[in-house]
Amino acid sequence: MDKTMRRFWILNHYATTPKTGPMLRHFYFARCLKDKQTETTIFAANELHQTGDTVDTYGKPYLRTEEEGVPFVFVKTSPYEGNGLSRVKNMLSFFFGLLRIAGRYAKIYGRPDVIMGSSAHPLTSIAGILLAKRFRVPAIVEVRDLWPEAIFSFGKVKMDSLLGRLLSAGEHWMYLHADAIVFTKEGDVDHIKEMGWDTEHGGRIDLGKCYYVNNGVQLKDYYESIERDRLKDQDLEADTFKVVYTGTIRPVNNVGNLLDTAKLLKECKDIQFLIYGGGSQLEELKVQAEREQIENVVFKGFVEKKYIPYILSRSSVNILNYSQSQYNWSRGNSSNKLFEYMASGKPIISTVKMGYCILDRYQCGFSLETDTPQALAEEILKIYHMPKETYKEMAEHAREGAKDFDFSVLTERLYGVIERVEKD
Prior knowledge:
The protein has 424 residues and is an alpha/beta fold. It is 40% helix and 17% strand. It has helices at residues 25-33, 85-109, 122-135, 149-153, 162-177, 189-194, 219-228, 234-237, 256-264, 282-291, 308-313, 336-343, 358-362, 373-384, 388-402, 407-423, and strands spanning 6-12, 38-45, 62-67, 70-75, 114-118, 139-143, 180-183, 210-212, 241-246, 271-276, 297-301, 317-320, 348-350, 365-367.
């Protein structure tokens, strides 16, 4: 590697290459950072979270590979299923694996200049801080999901329990010892204020080291995929008003709400609901649709991610369908799906009213105050009956708004953080 190149390590338990899964945030950052004299190496677990597959390390502690010039290091971890003890062991094995291999990896491929540890779970960010101290370099903590708040909101652990207090203490330690904190939701910094950890509220965390870099979409790849990866689907080609949902079919996504909405609109023969995705509730909802004779809903099942841009390009309106009660939406939305929906250039309806609302900011859709089938049906009809010029304007707002979340723009923000921690 050119000696003038900066070495940037990103630790993300669940990161993937385009060939191993859909978790591509850091791959896109790494690809864009190459133009800024920064070689980014991504450290991930060899047990793949999204697909259940395993990257073979051939009996070694890690496997180094490259994808489009981006180095990936797959750390050998223990296998797991579900969210029980085996998953906790997997998290621990990744944490200790990182600490074990970092020194020998640096001897072969060079020491890092900056390290970023990325949650979901905080052990990865803690490993990043510990390794940064070992190499005497700046540490960035990236928070893609607020742990343990997410656990508290699902009721799995009580905040005032012993475990809850220990988790919160670990989170506080992580923020305190980071040289910079990157949140993927605009309102997540409010959490630090609410906990009283910032200097203004008597704590020790300077909010000046907090930054916001959302998730997004690689627009060049997205639009190329629309032309290249076309899905043969007669329902997509039909001259109907297509209400499209893509994503996992599980309780937090409240997909049953779409069936109840479809029932209310069954007299509108021109409106059809197309649901793409798999998940724990898929078969249950299929049975419900058949039992209740909901004929304007078609379950398409799982489709490869490469077809999603084309599917969305054929929609009339795209639905962000969530449960209002199972998550704290006040801090905003960092869902990749939102930005793919925007890039499709079609209006969007969200079944939850989110804080820092991107749909309102870009005037590209509607958010529901209540997630009832009646409220959703009314919004769908509003778009269905919308004058063509108004519809085109909303669609164009979506397409233009997506440009602010292109990974080339997001990389500029992250690069600014890297430069600041190096100067401090």
